[in-house]
UniProtKB/TrEMBL annotation:
Domain AIG1-type G: 221-423
Record protein name field: AIG1-type G domain-containing protein
InterPro entries: DEATH-like_dom_sf, G_AIG1, GIMA/IAN/Toc, P-loop_NTPase
Gene3D superfamilies linked: Death Domain, Fas, P-loop containing nucleotide triphosphate hydrolases
Coiled coil: 419-633
Region (Disordered): 157-177
Naturally occurring in which organism (per UniProt): Paramormyrops kingsleyae
Record GO terms (molecular function): GTP binding
Transmembrane segments: 675-692, 704-726
Keywords linked to the UniProt accession: Coiled coil, GTP-binding, Membrane, Nucleotide-binding, Transmembrane, Transmembrane helix
PROSITE patterns for the chain: G_AIG1
Length: 734
């Protein structure tokens, strides 16, 4: 079956050429088919019909005869035209190789085309750099011309000031004689008229000078470039539309899917010659924006407002201040530097029906964050009602405020040197990275294509070797089949004929198997080629995706390498200021707390001292009372004892007087009197000692003094009574 399929394909591919060769070789069709009916029909056709119809009929018969007819046709060609058959077979094989060579040539052409594109891109970049250099030179020349104009204006101002001074001196000189001659009415009236005339002339000259200065300023700055900053995108768009006088920005409530991601610029012409440029920025103060996106948009904003904005309008709501608004100053310092604050106006918005006096009072008595922002921006602020689109008089007043600030800055625009250096470094890094990325991309793609070509050539070479081996097998099998067919024709024995037919069928089957194998190998080669091409495309796509991702990451990394030192220094300075302010605040709070604690402690000490003094006074009063009571009791007892002793002494004297010689009882009474007197002296001395001790020992507390005094007196008195009672009992017993 494989040999038949191969013959069919071969005849279909080279049918026209083969038929022409057959006409020259076998004019009556002998040997084309073994079927007698088909042979007779072809003979009649060739003899009786024209050449064109004959070829047409042979073409139809080949189609009707199917594989056996085409197989016989192939056999006929092999017998009569082997050279033609060899040429056609080599042409068929070389066609596939030529196709692969054409593909390689196509790849080389693509590679050459890409190299040419890269060279063209490099040439474009060089031309762009040259144009950028020329633009910078032109901008420098324009700046020099503006400086010259400013110098001229300054000189004219000075000359006008000198003229005004000389005129004022002449006026004063003319005033003095008229003051001396006040009595002369005619001269006085003349002097007043001349003075008024000269004052009018000086004022008109001054107005001309101011108008000339203003005209020079307007000529040097024909554009007014404004940049809107803030959190609310809707309010910024509303204010921008009001300034431009038409709806150019979307001012409604932004949906979550439509968020402004980059700065936008619009402009309009005012008074026929003045151009107002408004740049509406996204939310730069949000914590969700990455540093790379932020710096990219800052760069884009500066490009839109080139050579630099005249004013920044910081749009913020009047009644809503939180943690994010508290960090606006630090964020502006990090993004734009300290040079932006002289060009900034705080634009306070509110949506309520409040009067200007109420809103102005709120500004002066508002939150400390708002006060700090307004103070840092030079106390420049403007209030707008954004409940609807701002009206014309509000926009006119806003523009007057902006022009006043711009005139104070002498129409100079914001151009932070640090910001410009960072932007130029970022631009250089981006250009370098773009060139490196393009070269790396081209190099990787070329390497991948070369690798793919090598692999494809190796696989094709292997397949060609296998196909060539299979073709050799097919040729051997076909030769064997031809030999068996010839033997089969010559053999007359039926059994041998059957054996030969079986062998022929086996050889045909083997040839068919080999042809199928060749077909399968070709299909596998084609399939593998397609798979390889698909893998190559996927590999190229993956390289490009990885390249884009790596390029983005590398760009961010390079940009951050440039920005991080500057950001670090800024953050370090801001952290130092924050730490210093926090330290001062904490120390101030601690000082307040310490002062409050000291004051509370002093009050508590005073209170405790007062209570202690009151208790001491009460105790002293009680002690004095107790001492008085004890003294009175002791005095009464001593008086009573003294009375008794006097009575006893008197009685003893009487007894002694009545009995002069005395008896032992009298002597005993006399000794008792001496004992009583001695005890009285001892008691009086002890009492005196205790009294002195109570008054002199200041180290004792009043309670201890009182207790010691009472106990000592009671002990002495008890001892005296016990002693006296014992002596009295002894005397009675005696």
């Amino acid at each position: 079956m494989e040999s038949q399929d191969y013959a069919v394909r071969f005849v279909d591919q080279h049918r026209a050429e083969l038929i022409e060769r057959v006409r020259a070789v076998d004019t009556i069709g002998r040997g084309l088919l073994q079927h007698k009916k088909m042979h007779n029909r072809w003979t009649l056709l060739l003899l009786n019909d024209t050449s064109q119809n004959t070829m047409k009929n042979i073409y139809n018969d080949l189609d009707l005869g199917g594989a056996p007819a085409k197989q016989a046709f192939y056999k006929l060609l092999k017998e009569h035209e082997p050279q033609l058959l060899q040429e056609l077979e080599t042409e068929n094989v070389s066609g596939e190789i030529q196709g692969h060579r054409e593909e390689q040539q196509h790849l080389k052409e693509e590679r050459e085309k890409e190299r040419q594109e890269l060279e063209a891109w490099r040439a474009d970049r060089e031309t762009e750099e040259m144009e950028l250099h020329q633009m910078r030179c032109e901008l420098q020349r324009e700046r020099e011309e503006v400086e010259k104009m400013r110098d001229m204006i300054k000189k004219e101002k000075e000359s006008m000031n000198r003229k005004n001074k000389t005129q004022s001196k002449s006026v004063e000189a003319q005033k003095s004689p008229f003051r001396k001659c006040q009595s002369m009415d005619a001269i006085n009236n003349l002097g007043v008229k001349d003075q008024i005339k000269q004052e009018k002339e000086s004022r008109s000259l001054l107005r001309k000078c101011q108008s000339l200065d203003r005209n020079f300023k307007f000529a040097s700055a024909p554009e007014l470039r404004l940049v809107l900053l803030g959190r609310s995108t809707a309010e910024k768009s509303l204010i921008a539309n009001g300034i431009l006088g038409r709806e150019v920005f979307v001012s409604g409530t932004p949906s979550p899917t439509k968020v402004q991601m980059s700065s936008q610029m619009k402009h309009r012409t005012v008074a026929g010659t003045r151009v107002v440029v408004v740049v509406n920025t996204p939310d730069w103060f949000s914590s969700t924006v990455s540093q790379f996106q932020l710096w990219q948009d800052v760069k884009h904003c500066m490009e839109l407002s080139a050579p630099g904005p005249h004013a920044f309008l910081l749009v913020t709501e009047m009644h809503e201040y939180g943690e994010v608004q508290a960090t606006i100053l630090e964020k502006m310092r990090e993004i734009l530097g300290d040079d932006c604050f002289p060009h900034t106006i705080v634009l306070l918005t509110h949506a309520s029906e409040l009067t200007e006096s109420i809103t102005g009072g709120f500004v002066h008595t508002g939150s400390p964050d708002l006060q700090r922002i307004i103070t840092r921006c030079g106390n420049r602020y403007h209030i707008l009602n954004t409940s609807n689109r701002p009206e014309g008089h509000q926009i006119r007043r806003l523009l007057e405020t902006i022009e006043k600030m711009v005139e104070e800055n002498q129409w100079s625009f914001y151009s932070s040197e640090m910001h410009m250096e960072v932007m130029s470094q970022i631009q250089e890094v981006e250009q370098k990275l773009q060139r490196e990325r393009a070269e790396r991309k081209l190099r990787e793609e070329l390497e991948a294509k070369e690798k793919f070509e090598k692999e494809l050539q190796e696989t094709l070479r292997e397949k060609e070797v296998v196909i060539q081996v299979q073709k050799e097998k097919i040729t051997v099998l076909e030769e064997r089949i031809v030999e068996l067919e010839e033997e089969l024709k010559e053999e007359r024995d039926e059994e041998k004929k059957k054996e030969l037919e079986e062998k022929l069928n086996k050889e045909v089957e083997m040839r068919n198997v080999t042809q199928n194998e060749v077909k399968r190998l070709k299909e596998e080669a084609e399939k593998e080629k397609c798979e390889r091409e698909e893998e190559h495309r996927e590999e190229i796509e993956e390289i490009r995706e990885n390249y884009e991702g790596k390029a983005q990451a590398e760009a961010e990394r390079h940009v951050m390498k440039i920005l991080l030192p500057e950001l670090f220094s800024r953050l370090q300075s801001t952290l130092k200021t924050k730490i210093h302010n926090e330290y001062e605040r904490q120390t101030e709070e601690k000082n307040h707390e310490i002062a409050a604690i000291k004051e509370a402690c002093s009050r508590e000490i005073e209170r405790v001292q007062r209570l202690k003094n009151e208790e001491m006074q009460m105790l002293m009063i009680q002690m004095s009372r107790e001492i008085k009571r004890i003294k009175t009791e002791n005095k009464i007892k001593t008086e009573r004892l003294q009375g008794e002793m006097k009575w006893k002494v008197g009685r003893m004297k009487l007894n002694l007087e009545s009995s002069p010689q005395g008896s032992p009882g009298e002597k005993k009474g006399h000794g008792e009197i001496h004992w009583i007197l001695r005890n009285l002296v001892i008691v009086s001395l002890l009492f005196l000692f205790l009294f002195v001790l109570n008054h002199t020992c200041g180290s004792f507390t009043p309670e201890m003094i009182l207790v010691c005094f009472v106990l000592s007196n009671m002990a002495i008195f008890t001892f005296f009574l016990v002693d006296w009672g014992l002596r009295r009992a002894i005397r009675l017993l005696d």
